Amino acid sequence: MPRLGGALDAGHCNTHPALMKHLFLLALLACPAQAETKMTPSQFEAFTRDTTVFFNRHDAPYGAEQYLSGKRVVWSFLDGTCQRGVWFGDRDEICFLYDDQPDALCWYFFDDGARQSARIVGDDPADDLVVVGKSSEPLVCPGPDVGVSYRP
User: Model-level pTM?
Assistant: First the structure.
């Protein structure tokens, strides 16, 4: 088997700790770590309190959720219909239970300082919802019956 020449030869690496440190730092730069910090339930509550948060998925509008007092929520896929529910914290997960669902759906919410995102527990990061805006305005929920609007 051919040997690597010069300072990278295995026989020389042990005698060049400065070179090894430099190569290690270059490897770290080539593969930057993602600084995903999970929001705690209290951080999530502070982030969402009395707001409507808008989400994109795969760079396209996906939906919005209005966060109300008492951990109540209203979700919409922005199609005019809304689902009402509640959220609760379970360790580092934020779980939602909607009126028409028998089981809670749990998410991780992340804040890296520049971007906030949400991932269903167990899902691929490529499918994350990305926060693209917040508003103090309530969702408009005319639903399937035109003229009906939900306001808390």
Answer: 0.72
